[in-house]
Amino acid sequence: MDLAGLRVVKAVADTGSVSRAAEALNCVQSNVTARIKRLEEDLGVDLFLRLSRGMEPTPAGRVLSGYADRVLRLVAQARDAVAEAAGRGGRLAVGSMESTAAVRLPPVLARFHRDHPDVDLTITPGPTETLLADVLAGRLDGAFVGGEVAHPDLIARRIFDEELVLAEPAAGLTTESARRTLIAFGRACAYRGRAEMAMREAGRVPFRVMEFGALDAILGCVGAGMGVTVIPRAVVERNPWRDLLAARPLPDALARMPTQFVRRADAIETASLRAFMEAFSQAAGPAIAANGAMQGATGSPTSRTGLNGSSAAC
Fold first, then answer.
1. Which residue ranges does the record annotate as region Disordered (predicted)?
2. For 11-58, how does the pLDDT look when each residue is reduced to its tens digit (9 = 90+)?
3. 193-250: per-residue pLDDT in tens?
4. CA gap 311, 309 in Å, rounded
């Protein structure tokens, strides 16, 4: 059993297919098959069921895949820690909701890049549910997500609260159809859930939903008079949207949305990650204080009640 074998086990378990695992590992299928067979002979158990539709892990295979995931993440963390200790900067992969990336992160990134130019930093935008899955899988070192998070394998630190508003075109809505059209992210987004509740409370029922995957597309369509959306006030008040959109307040129960930074509870907090969070506090703190309450946190693991899907945000 070696790292290459563990990578093969994890790839087959994740993809459910030898061909897809080979593609992910950039090798030929025969190498994947041979590695699996060698491991099964070494351990004396079947790791996968060979089915017509692909490969499915046996109970033993699921156990080994779980260990492979942890070992490979630990190896990656060790490489980054050694690189940091050697003064080579290391790597840092952070996820973020698109609205947070657009409004909150630019001054943070500028400060971090200035103070830590050798760190290879990657920012991955996405909806909260996707970001949570990527953090749990070790693909991200941490992520800014929306809503309450409850998972035994995650540490969640509450960073600030966003004020959500109903955004309409500044020139007003000219048709009843536009008043009853919600322009939003997909259903995994808490902004979408809050928006649907706001539409119902305002009596704009029945309403239809137009889904988009990009923040600028949503705001552009609202500005063009196609409908309304629910978005953080900080987004509406930045250029160029401040002249194109009007922000209508929501009831308090719908308006406040916590933004939290999550990371795996068993992951080592690298110097790069600590420096990034310090840069966030220093660069984003004044802007957040002006637009939303900064929240302190102990950073303890969240409760064992599973992911709170109803609070997912984009």
1. 293-314
2. 999 999 999 999 999 999 999 999 999 999 999 999 999 888 889 999
3. 888 999 998 889 899 999 998 999 999 999 999 999 999 999 999 989 999 999 999 9
4. 5
Long-range contacts of 214-218, Cβ-Cβ distance < 8 Å, separation of 24 or more: 214/98, 215/98, 215/99, 215/102, 218/183, 218/184, 218/185
Number of residues in the chain: 314
Residue 144 sits at the vertex; the CA angle it makes with 162 and 239, to the nearest 5 degrees, is: 50
Rounded CA-CA distance 158/145 in Å is 10
**C-alpha to C-alpha distance for 138 and 79, rounded to whole angstroms:** 14
Q: Which amino acid is at 104?
A: R
pTM, rounded to two decimals: 0.76
Query: What distance in Å separates the CA atoms of residue 17 and residue 38, rounded to the nearest whole number?
Result: 17
DSSP state, residue 300: P
Give pLDDT, residue 292.
Answer: 44
Report H helices in 44-124: 59-85, 98-103, 105-115
pLDDT digits (tens, 9 = 90+) for 63-78: 999 899 888 888 887 8
Q: Which residues pair with 122 in a beta bridge?
A: 93
Over residues 295-309, the pLDDT tens digits come to 433 344 443 333 333
Tell me which residue of 193, 170, 173 sits closest to 181, measured CA to CA.
173
**CA distance linking residue 49 with residue 54, whole number of Å:** 8
Distance CA 80, CA 197 (A): 44
- CA atoms of 146 and 136, how far apart (whole Å): 16
From CA 131, how far away is CA 280, in angstroms rounded? 19
